[in-house]
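**Discrete fold encoding**
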Amino acid sequence: MTKLLTFPVKQLTGGLLAWTDQCAAVERFGLNHAAVEGLALEKGLLPARYQRNQHMISVAEQLQLFRSRIAVIGCGGLGGYIIEELARLGVGNIVAIDPDIFEEHNLNRQLLATPHNLGQAKVEAALKRVNEINPSVTVIPVRDFFCTANGRELLSGVTVVVDALDSISSRLELAEICTQMQIPMVHGAIGGWYGHVATQLPGDTTVQSIYRNWVEGKGIEKELGNPAFTPAVVASLQVAEICKIVLGRGELLRHRKLSIDLLEMEIQEISYDGPAKVICFPSCENKPERAAK
């Protein structure tokens, strides 16, 4: 550590550590990028890649993000965007869980899907992508189904769990295991023009309430499909919730669901402790009675 702190840097303005200097330290001291970034943040140096974060996220908070471990269950439509944004945000450890490979029908909406990746495991594509955009982030790829049998092992040591599944039964299993393990869970679901987001802290039952009338099947996604933009919107909202949980800041989507209708540009907040509250963009101010799908 002492050697790293005395290592000459070419650009250290405003407490920013340039990427070229990080790479030089990696080579000189035989450390990996994660080790160098962690040491820098501990000493109050902000890697320059995060300089646009610094007016809303302090160096100490950036260190909190770096030390966090986020499990993303599902690496498809929602999961691909979530993993990308977590890596760019500076979350230090991502557990990517998905049993599937990329197929041609994934190409319209899944950020990690490319013609070159067809037939490749989604978790391996996630690992490769994160290594390309932020080598300081550690990705643990797990090519397996999430279920009650392996849930505790997969979520061991996790700070926050992100639901990017397409199966309601699996979501309910995930919610139950998160409750048992006292882990916060950020839930997201999409279908066609529509999506919703909710955050469930240990002891809450919001996800169970959302699906209390569910009988069987994967849900509305199979009926409506998904375009390119819906997963991007919902995933971004999920990442914002993750960031707030890790940093202990802001008001979470707790005991409520944010339901999004991108066709009519309406957002409806549905409370599970009280009456629904409707929030609309300007284009739909005169239609508060329309329910989100």
Confidence is low (pLDDT under 50) at residues 278-293. The radius of gyration is 20 Å. The longest strand covers residues 185-191. Residues 255 and 273 are 6 Å apart (CA to CA).
